[in-house]
Amino acid sequence: MKRSVTLRGETFNFLDLRELMARANEPKAGDRLAGIAASSERERVAAKMALAEVPLSAFLDEPLLEDDVTGLIVDSLDREEFAKLRSLTVGELRELVLSSNFASEWQRGVKGALTPEMVAAAARIMSARDLITAAAPLRSVTRCRNTMGERGVLGVRIQPNHPTDDIAGVVLSALDGLMFGCGDAVIGVNPAGDAIENVVALEHALHDLIGAVGAPTQSCVLAHFTTQLASLERGAPVDLLFQSIGGTEATNAGFGVTLQGLADGREAVLASHAARDGFIGENIMYFETGQGTALSVDGHGGVDQLTCEARAYGVARAFDPFLVNSVVGFIGPEYLADATEIIRAGLEDHFMGKLLGLPMGIDICYTNHVEANQDTTDQLLVLLATAGCNFVMGVPGSDDVMLNYQSTSYHDAAGVRELVGARPAPEFAVWLEQTGIFVDGRLAEGSANGPESLQAFAESVKELGR
Amino acid sequence: MSEDLPDTLSSAVEVGGDISKVTPARLLIGRAGTAYRTSTQLQLRADHAFAKDALNATFSLDESPMKELAERFDLFEVESEATSREEYLARPDKGRRLADGVAETLRENCPSGVDLQVVIGDGLSPLAVTSQVPALLEPLLNHAAARGWSVGRPFVIRNCRVGAMNDIGEALDAQNVVLLIGERPGLATAESLSAYLAHRPRTGDTDAQRNLVSNIHPGGVTAEDAVWRILGLVDAFMIQGRSGFMVKESARPTSLSEASGR
């Protein structure tokens, strides 16, 4: 395939679909690092114009990469539904997803008829408001021990990390988050150490905490999935099975992940749930992703980072996850250089995940070696809350003391819920009222207001237990 | 509801009075509406400013504390392909490769095929190296020698990324390589060191073939615990003939309260 566009007398040629996709992408440090980005703004927009004319069928006829992820994507496509869309161009797909009645068409079948590549193509000819407007009506509802993703619900993961996995430190951090109304998405700790004993101890601690306070939510210890499965074999309670994934077979190999391994792990955890109380659904996987991941393990195969990210969602989709989030500012300036690129990527990731039917959240974050700051996370948080993001992170004071980066805080999460009128998960909201953390749907005056609040919370939980 | 409720919560309430005993995290800090108190807001800004500065700090083998270390362990310095801090940040691929001629320098100055080769990299926080490596290097090398392992001559890589371990493995054919490298500076500490470990690293290896002991700093994993964990992992590599995600650490790290002697 050769495509060319002439723009004010200057002709731009694009060798193949892979090159066209890369050149059409919005500026990203990772694409520049890989040597595949547009060499000028004129070339970028010429590529966008050419891409807008490409029919969706081209993405099936001309795979960007041949590997097991492509195989999975092709196998899981709803051919019957796709037949209705195959003659649409990328430009027409953009208009379709922005049309006012799209959400019902999407729910009826369109969400199974799009491949990650098609979604990634449309995203790069959309503006920031396009990405927000198109994503907002698309809801992906999932169930594990509560219900995430309904319209108007903004979930929060409590991320109570600790530099040495000290149990008392982790538990106290999680309690602080609960008092802000956070923790409905998951109480999920990234362990500092991957030792099995360590993961087992954390799994029991979070499970005991949830039991003690009676909160309808789920826990997760975000070790390598093989370590979580080893802990399950030792009798540890595994609510959600977590794994970082990428959009190519080579990326997943770099993470020590195979599709079969994930499928087997899911079965093992599901089987363990059958013997436990409190599960109301079979969405039990939790995946994290991020633009630039594939390049960071040299597994991109010449495909741009936006497309690789969408393909990671194609992997996630095959396992009916409870939660998926990209960790959008975590990876460093060589992939997303600054606040502009991070904000753009966060909106793209959320849109692409939602359009592919995922329960999409975002870890809105930045590291200290990137040109971004607290204002960056504030801005993206407000944008994503209006876009109907399924969940965000809650990190005490925004400062992750183990992973050494800044995400959204318990304060931020509680604040943006009030700002946009979003609620916690329904089961969790009932519990928040029972414990007095919320009064009439809002954070109570006395909750999360210093050390005295903890005493009051403990008393109210004790009362509830009687 | 669970019987152990009072214990779980009452112990947390007790700890709540002295949070720093159990975690450096910013807990129970109050609020102004749903926003931070002014003191919290400004403290976060100050900590961010210090973290940004730590990125661009430098160290020299001619200045304390690296000078003493260089004299004692005969340290020398080589460079990655990244020639400036700016290039280092923008081009991680260059930080993962040794500069032209460095492989020869290493072969001339270090024994090949040793059981343990320790390497020091500045990484994203040179400050972490000057803060943690002086306490770590001697016990690590001593304990390794006491186990009967042959130990290579340690050296420093400037503008170093973790992937440089592959070039080191190719150049020196060490059985096990340990890279002590400064972590990305955080708000609570800009002095956190990581130890990346690999068995017979070679070109093309990824993190899947590596193991990690992270958060080495006084508020995290102490130097003593780090040495113990590194040696334990290298033991496991030698028994299993491999490194990476298939090799699991066998014990949980010491808790912060124990590590800090409280």
From TrEMBL, chain A:
<dbReference type="Pfam" id="PF06751">
    <property type="entry name" value="EutB"/>
</dbReference>
<dbReference type="GO" id="GO:0005829">
    <property type="term" value="C:cytosol"/>
</dbReference>
<dbReference type="GO" id="GO:0006520">
    <property type="term" value="P:amino acid metabolic process"/>
</dbReference>
<dbReference type="InterPro" id="IPR044939">
    <property type="entry name" value="EutB_dom_2_sf"/>
</dbReference>
<protein>
    <submittedName>
        <fullName>Unannotated protein</fullName>
    </submittedName>
</protein>
<dbReference type="GO" id="GO:0008851">
    <property type="term" value="F:ethanolamine ammonia-lyase activity"/>
</dbReference>
<dbReference type="InterPro" id="IPR010628">
    <property type="entry name" value="EutB"/>
</dbReference>
<dbReference type="InterPro" id="IPR044941">
    <property type="entry name" value="EutB_N_sf"/>
</dbReference>
<dbReference type="InterPro" id="IPR013785">
    <property type="entry name" value="Aldolase_TIM"/>
</dbReference>
<dbReference type="GO" id="GO:0009350">
    <property type="term" value="C:ethanolamine ammonia-lyase complex"/>
</dbReference>
<dbReference type="GO" id="GO:0046336">
    <property type="term" value="P:ethanolamine catabolic process"/>
</dbReference>
From TrEMBL, chain B:
<dbReference type="Pfam" id="PF05985">
    <property type="entry name" value="EutC"/>
</dbReference>
<keyword id="KW-0170">Cobalt</keyword>
<dbReference type="GO" id="GO:0006520">
    <property type="term" value="P:amino acid metabolic process"/>
</dbReference>
<keyword id="KW-0846">Cobalamin</keyword>
<protein>
    <submittedName>
        <fullName>Unannotated protein</fullName>
    </submittedName>
</protein>
<keyword id="KW-1283">Bacterial microcompartment</keyword>
<dbReference type="InterPro" id="IPR009246">
    <property type="entry name" value="EutC"/>
</dbReference>
<dbReference type="GO" id="GO:0031419">
    <property type="term" value="F:cobalamin binding"/>
</dbReference>
<dbReference type="GO" id="GO:0008851">
    <property type="term" value="F:ethanolamine ammonia-lyase activity"/>
</dbReference>
<dbReference type="GO" id="GO:0009350">
    <property type="term" value="C:ethanolamine ammonia-lyase complex"/>
</dbReference>
<dbReference type="InterPro" id="IPR042251">
    <property type="entry name" value="EutC_C"/>
</dbReference>
<keyword id="KW-0456">Lyase</keyword>
<dbReference type="InterPro" id="IPR042255">
    <property type="entry name" value="EutC_N"/>
</dbReference>
